[in-house]
Amino acid sequence: MNDVRIFDGPSAPRTNTAGDPSRRSFLRTGAAALGGMAALAAALSPLRELAADDVPNLDDFLQKHYKEMTAAEMEVALERIRAKVEERYGVRPHVRDLKPMDGVEFGYALNLSRCIGCRKCVHACVAENNQSRSPEIQYIRVIEMPRGTMDVEKGSHHYDRPEVPEAQHFYMPVQCHQCANPPCVKVCPVEATWQEKDGITVIDYDWCIGCRYCEAACPYWARRFNFAKPSLPREQLNPNMSYLSNRPREKGVMEKCHFCLHRTREGRMPACAEICPTGARKFGNLLDPHSEVSEILKTKRVFVLKEEVGTLPRFFYYFDERYPNQLDPDAVAIAERLREEEGDAYGALPGVNGPSAAALALASPQRCHGARA
Amino acid sequence: MTTYLKFLSRCFRLSFVGDARYYAWMFALTVCVLLGINAYCKQLVYGLATTGMTDQVSWGFYIANFTFLVGMAAAAVMLVIPVYVYRNRELHDLVIFGELFAVAAIIMAMLFVTVDLGRPDRFHHLPLRFNFPSSMLTWDVLVLNGYLLLNLHICGYLVYCAYRRREPSKIFYIPFVFIAIVWAISIHTVTAFLYSGLGGRPFWNSAVIAPRFLASAFAAGPAFLILTLSVLRSFTTYEVSTKAFMTLRNIVTIALTINMFLLGSEAFTEFYTDSAHVASAKYLFVGLHGRSALVPWIWSAIALNTIALFLLYMPWSRRLPVLQVVSFMLIVGIWIEKGMGLIVPAFIPTPLGEIVEYLPTLNELLVTLGIWAFGLLIYTILVRVTVPVLAGQLTYDKRFAETKAELEAGLAVGAR
Ligand code: SF4
Ligand code: SF4
What we know:
The complex is a heterodimer of chains A (about 375) and B (about 425). Chain A is of the alpha/beta class. Helix content of chain A is about 30%, strand content about 10%.
């Protein structure tokens, strides 16, 4: 089968059917071929608009999977990221590859009696993690839930009133639950996403092929996709970065909450826990019996969302038993103070300037609606 | 080998020859392909934001078409089974047209997955870190490629034998035919598992998805063949017996009946239970909280399928024009049901209860059009080449006598 003699294949019109290959038919074929070429070139013309740094170069192409890189190769990759960020944003970033610490498994506990729905965690997360600002990508979604139900379908995602918290509701922030049995990892065809030793599910943004299977698989709607080229104003860039967390992403890849691993693997709190004005968010090491989260798991009646899907989240919720039917009065007082101090900005809907004009021209109305909503 | 290359080259040249209608059809398809390429280039530049997809509805028209086409490809077996298992000679040659369509359908399906990728430039990551057997998507890659090769081999071999006027040697294709039968069921089953294995999407998380896939495919595939054969019968000298049409009609009738039955059981389970899981189904059939973009789609699909089924059970559909209309109706009906009706509602509402609707954008529609046109282009060429070979108009013998040079080349090969 292997003695393929290519040059025996289609060649000159020597064996054409009856009649001589006349000059005219030759010209006609030539004209048709030329016309076809011109049409093809016209069809391909939008590619000229492709930004130069959007086209992957050979180094990008040959870069290995995170787990296969040696220390030296990782250093090369990090240097490439630094150079790219510097070129794009004019800032030399501090990029590292932080490994999980031994004896640590991170967990989150959220006190629903203290969350006032102010969305400060949403904004702090965007600022910390260099998400695209237009269209804006957020990892945290705060749902306003009527009291007396846990059915998220009854909740409102787009509440927009300055008087949060509203007495008849409680507020439930949702982000990646860092499942111990994560369906998103199971389905990824190229192993671009995996669970690390400290329980954080990460994504290699340079390996993801953008199939969005993980987004379909996640029961908590925690994943976000870069449908357009992320845009991030220079002055808003956070230069403290790591490979698996908040370095700037490219168009066409998946991202999500990673418990701020560039902070937490150095012993700091995630940005959302740090900013929370009421202390509703508690973060820590589940393996340390004296950590605050461990105490909460031992002493409070915690629960997880959608326990029935068997994902074993490391993100727990609880209500304060002292206040069965209302928010913690202490938290309400904080909300009142904030409302006075911040005015309109308080509890604001996340800002979205919309996708770039060019992309918008091609997009459907409901896409913009979805983005703005 | 030389003969084989000559065969390919003749086929290649033949695909440029035809009457005015052929040229017009091919020209129209080429224009559509170019429009699709143009739209895809825009998508490459601006990203998938050029589609109607969002984080809320993260799969749309592309994946819907992919699903439908996998089904069409699998349906080729429906014709293979009676021929080889029950020795129904009527359908013998027609199997080739079914399998040729399988080839075109698989190519289209793969293109749809490719255009859906955010980073097609990283396609080589797939073989490098192949997440097998954990990810159903890797299974799908394997079975689809395997199916493509199997079908290429079977039709290639049979057509080549006809060209050489040889009796095909059984050992070279019968085993493959039987493998292909099992394989065809696998491509559809694996594709169904792609969806039904996701615990976070109750709408898909149902055991009936795979059987429903098979049933609907076995209706739409043969229906498409009825249309192809009708074209052949009216535009070429190729003999298509009425009995072949009637066999296809029977297959379609049975498959469509089963499909409607499964759809009914699914709807019953959802709506009678009326648990929180019903939200997506409600959105699909009647709308949810005043949002109802999919309602007209699914009801037109149900209407088309019901009318088609009714007509199939009536004697009128023995008449070819009626049968053609019925086939067309049910292809469209199943296309909607498998596509917009199966893929999109699973995302609405989102796992967090948000309702964001989805409609494809113009750019997305153009890419889709381009892929369909490309698939039809391939299929047209394959059929265009196969018909004269099977009809004995293009054979090695005829060529053999034609030119002296050819004669010598042929002798050289014969001596091997
Ligand atoms: S919440 Fe979703 S994205 Fe996060 S680990 Fe679980 S399945 Fe994966
Ligand atoms: S989108 Fe990326 S991370 Fe998600 S499944 Fe596909 S390749 Fe894996």
